[in-house]
C-alpha cells in the first residue's frame, strides 16, 4: 500500500502547530477544534494538522493553558481596533449624551472595533499565507502607552463637544459623577459583548467538531456556521424580541383599561364616550380617554380668538371598540358624523402612534387656530409604543392610516362641494408613516386634502423618502426642495420662510416639519456602511459642525439617541411642541390671526407640555 506523502506546505503547517508558539488569537473565525477528532480514520493526522493550522491554533493552545482559552485574554489586533473605535465613540452625534449613555456607546463600539481588528488580522494572514504569531517584545507596551494617551485625549475632547451640543440646545443638566464612571460602564459593556461573542464562537466550534466526525471539514465548517447563525437569529428574534413584545403587550394592555389621572368621562355629545356616543367610554383605552377628555375649553378658545368660539368635536375608537381596523374606523367615523363633525368648517384626520397616542400640542394648536370650528378623528391600532410597533408590525400602522382616511373620505366626498369641511391630515412620528399610506403621491395628497402636516417623519416613510430623494439639486437633505415647492415643502423652523420662499405655494399645502437634530428622522440601517447626505452637507442650526460619519460608529450613536429624542427642550430632537402652531398656520392659512396671537399661542402650547 502506498502512503500519501505530505507536501512542503503540510510539513510547514504541522511544524507550526507542534511548536505551540503564540498566544490566543480571536482572528481565526471559523474552524472547529478537531485536534482529537477523527482518530483512527484514514488521513486523520494530516486532517488534524491542517485544521489546527486553519483555526489559528498556535495562539489558542499555549503551554500554560494546556489548550484551554484564557478567560480574559485579548489579542493585539483586536485591542487596536477596540481602542480606535472607543476613541471615535466620543465624537458628537445628534443629541447630548450623559455619562451612562456615553459609556454604553463606547463599550459597544469598542466591541465592534475589536471584532473588526481580529477579522482584519485574519484576512491579512490569509493573503500572507501564514498563521498567527506572538506579538513582538514591547508591542503591548506601545499599545498601552498609546491607549492611555489616545483615550484620555478623546475623552477630554468628547466632553468639550458635549458641552457645545448642550449649549446649542439650551440643556443645563450635567452629572459629573456619571461622566467619570463612563469608562467603567464602557469596560463592563465591552466585556459582556466579548463574552457573548466568544460563547457563540465556542458553540460553533463544538458543533463543527461534532459534525466533522461524519462529514468533511469544509462541510462541517459551513453547516456549523449556518446552524449557529440560525440559532442566534432565532434566540434574538424569537426569545428576546418575542419575550420583550409579550411582556410589553401584557403591561400596556393592562394599562389600557385604566384612565389617566384628572381625565373624566365627557358630559357632552360632541365627544366619543359621551352621551349618545356609539363608542363606549370603556373601549377607548388609556390614550383614547386622554385624547377625548382633554383639550382647550370653549372659554379658553374664546379668550384666545377674542370672539365667540365653538366647542371642538373629537371622535376616537380604541382597540376594544371593534375587532379589526376597518370596523374601528367605521365606528369612529359613525361617531364623528353623529356629533356633527362633517358640518364643521375644518375636519382633521390623525393617524396615531403605536399605542394610540395623539400629541396634545398637535390637536390643541389646530383647534385654537380654527376658533373651535373643528372636528378631529383618530383610532388606536396597538397597545405598544411606536418603536416596538415598528419592529414587530408596521402593517398595523399602514392599515389603520388607510382605513381611517378612506372611511372619512367616503362620507366627505359624497357631501355637496359647497357644504364640505376643509379636510386635513396629520401624523407625528409613526403616525406620519401610517398617514402617508392612504396616498399614492404628491397629486393624491393635493387632490384629496385641503392640507397635510407630517411631523418628525421616520426615515423609512415611503413618500418622505420619495420627496427627499428626488429633491432639487443643491437643496440640502435637512430642508429639501421638491418640484419647486408647488405642493410639498419641508422646514425645520416654520416661524421662518419655508423654502423656496420666492415661489407661490398655491392650492393644498403639504408640510413636513423635521428638526436637524431629530434622530427618528435620520436613523437608518444604511448608516452602518454608507454616509448620508445630511452629514456631508452643512449641518442644521442645532447640530454640531464637527459631527462626521464613520462606519458602524455613527449608526450606534444615532441609535442610542433614539430613546432620548424627546428629552431635550422644545424645538430640538423629536420635541416639536410650539412648532405645531406655526406649522398649522402655514398649512391652514387662517384668517385674522396676528403675529401677537401666534406668540401667545406658542406660550399656551408650551405651558401645556
How many extended strands? 7
Low-confidence stretches: 1-69
Tell me the fraction of residues in β-strands, as a range: 5-15%
> Quick one: biggest sheet?
7 strands, parallel
N- to C-terminal distance: 89 Å
Assign the structural class, choosing from mainly alpha, mainly beta, alpha/beta, alpha+beta, or little secondary structure: alpha/beta
The helix-strand sequence is HHHHHHHHHHEHEHEHHEHHEHEEHHHHH
Bulk shape = elongated
Tell me the Rg in angstroms.
30 Å
Placed side by side, the strands forming the largest sheet appear as: 1-3-2-4-5-7-6
The number of helical elements comes to: 22
Percent helix: 40-55%
Can you tell me about this structure?
- The protein has 609 residues and is of the alpha/beta class.
- It contains 22 helices and seven strands.
- It is 50% helix and 6% strand.
- The termini are far apart.
- A seven-stranded parallel β-sheet has the order 1-3-2-4-5-7-6, sandwiched between helices.
- Residues 1-65 are annotated as: Disordered.
- InterPro entries: Alpha/beta-hydrolase_catalytic, Alpha/beta-hydrolase_N_dom.
In short:
This protein is an alpha/beta fold and 609 residues long. It has 22 helices and seven strands.
What are the salient characteristics of this protein?
disordered N terminus, 609 residues, single chain, seven-stranded parallel sheet, 6% strand, 50% helix, alpha/beta
List the helices and strands and how they pair.
Elements: H1 8-19, H2 44-54, H3 57-60, H4 76-88, H5 99-128, H6 139-169, H7 176-211, H8 217-255, H9 285-292, H10 298-305, E1 313-317, H11 325-338, E2 346-351, H12 360-369, E3 374-379, H13 386-392, H14 394-412, E4 422-428, H15 430-436, H16 442-448, E5 451-455, H17 462-469, E6 488-491, E7 509-513, H18 519-522, H19 533-536, H20 553-561, H21 579-588, H22 595-608
Parallel strand pairs: 1-3, 2-3, 2-4, 4-5, 5-7, 6-7
Helix pairs in contact: 1-2, 4-5, 4-6, 5-7, 5-20, 7-8, 11-14, 12-21, 12-22, 14-15
Amino acid at each position: 500500500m502506498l502512503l500519501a506523502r505530505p507536501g512542503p506546505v503540510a510539513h510547514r503547517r504541522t511544524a507550526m502547530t507542534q511548536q505551540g508558539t503564540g498566544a490566543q488569537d480571536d482572528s481565526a473565525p471559523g474552524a472547529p477544534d478537531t485536534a482529537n477528532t477523527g482518530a483512527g480514520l484514514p488521513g486523520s493526522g494530516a486532517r488534524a494538522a491542517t485544521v489546527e493550522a486553519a483555526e489559528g491554533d498556535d495562539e489558542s493552545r499555549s503551554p500554560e493553558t494546556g489548550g484551554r482559552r484564557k478567560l480574559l485574554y485579548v489579542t493585539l489586533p483586536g485591542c487596536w481596533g477596540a481602542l480606535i473605535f472607543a476613541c471615535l465613540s466620543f465624537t458628537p452625534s445628534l443629541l447630548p449624551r450623559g455619562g451612562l449613555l456615553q459609556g454604553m456607546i463606547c463599550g459597544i463600539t469598542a466591541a465592534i472595533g475589536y471584532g473588526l481588528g481580529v477579522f482584519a488580522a485574519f484576512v491579512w494572514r490569509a493573503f500572507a499565507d501564514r498563521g498567527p504569531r506572538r506579538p513582538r517584545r514591547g508591542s503591548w507596551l506601545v499599545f498601552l502607552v498609546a491607549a492611555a494617551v489616545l483615550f484620555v485625549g478623546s475623552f477630554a475632547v468628547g466632553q468639550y463637544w458635549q458641552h457645545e451640543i448642550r449649549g446649542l440646545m439650551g440643556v443645563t443638566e450635567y452629572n459629573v459623577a456619571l461622566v467619570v464612571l463612563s469608562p467603567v460602564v464602557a469596560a463592563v459593556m465591552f466585556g459582556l459583548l466579548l463574552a457573548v461573542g466568544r460563547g457563540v464562537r465556542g458553540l460553533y466550534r463544538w458543533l463543527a467538531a461534532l459534525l466533522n466526525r461524519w462529514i468533511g471539514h469544509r462541510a462541517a465548517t459551513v453547516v456549523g456556521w449556518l446552524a449557529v447563525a440560525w440559532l442566534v437569529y432565532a434566540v434574538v428574534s424569537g426569545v428576546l424580541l418575542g419575550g420583550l413584545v409579550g411582556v410589553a403587550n401584557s403591561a400596556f394592555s393592562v394599562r389600557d383599561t385604566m384612565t389617566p389621572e384628572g381625565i373624566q368621562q365627557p358630559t357632552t355629545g360632541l365627544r366619543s364616550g359621551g352621551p349618545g356616543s356609539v363608542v363606549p367610554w370603556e373601549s377607548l383605552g388609556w390614550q383614547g380617554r386622554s385624547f377625548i377628555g382633554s383639550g382647550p375649553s370653549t372659554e379658553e378658545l374664546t379668550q384666545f380668538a377674542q370672539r365667540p368660539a365653538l366647542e371642538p368635536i373629537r371622535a376616537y375608537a380604541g382597540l376594544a371598540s371593534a375587532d379589526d381596523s376597518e370596523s374601528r374606523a367605521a365606528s369612529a367615523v359613525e361617531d364623528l358624523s353623529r356629533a356633527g363633525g362633517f358640518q364643521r368648517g375644518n375636519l382633521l384626520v390623525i393617524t396615531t402612534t403605536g399605542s394610540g397616542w395623539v400629541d396634545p400640542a398637535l390637536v390643541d394648536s389646530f383647534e385654537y387656530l380654527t376658533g373651535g370650528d373643528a372636528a378631529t378623528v383618530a383610532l388606536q391600532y396597538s397597545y405598544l409604543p411606536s418603536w416596538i410597533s415598528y419592529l414587530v408590525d408596521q402593517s398595523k400602522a399602514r392599515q389603520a392610516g388607510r382605513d381611517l382616511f378612506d372611511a372619512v373620505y367616503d362620507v366627505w366626498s359624497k357631501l355637496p362641494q359647497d357644504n364640505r369641511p376643509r379636510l386635513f391630515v396629520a401624523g407625528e412620528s409613526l403616525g406620519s408613516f401610517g398617514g402617508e399610506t392612504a396616498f399614492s403621491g404628491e397629486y393624491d395628497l393635493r387632490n384629496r386634502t385641503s392640507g397635510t402636516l407630517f411631523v418628525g417623519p421616520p426615515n423609512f416613510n415611503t413618500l418622505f423618502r420619495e420627496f427627499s430623494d428626488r429633491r432639487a439639486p443643491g437643496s440640502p437633505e435637512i430642508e429639501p426642495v421638491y418640484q419647486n415647492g408647488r405642493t410639498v415643502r419641508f422646514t425645520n423652523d416654520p416661524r421662518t420662510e419655508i423654502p423656496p420662499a420666492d415661489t407661490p405655494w398655491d392650492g393644498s399645502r403639504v408640510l413636513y416639519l423635521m428638526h436637524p437634530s431629530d434622530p427618528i428622522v435620520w436613523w437608518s440601517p444604511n448608516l452602518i456602511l454608507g454616509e448620508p447626505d445630511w452629514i456631508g452637507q452643512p449641518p442644521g442650526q442645532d447640530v454640531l459642525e464637527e459631527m462626521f460619519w464613520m462606519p458602524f460608529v455613527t449608526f450606534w450613536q444615532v441609535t442610542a439617541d433614539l430613546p432620548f429624542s424627546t428629552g431635550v427642550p422644545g424645538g430640538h430632537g423629536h420635541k416639536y411642541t410650539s412648532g405645531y402652531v406655526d406649522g398649522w398656520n402655514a398649512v391652514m392659512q387662517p384668517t385674522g390671526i396676528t403675529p401677537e396671537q401666534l406668540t401667545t399661542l406658542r406660550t399656551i402650547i408650551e405651558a401645556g407640555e
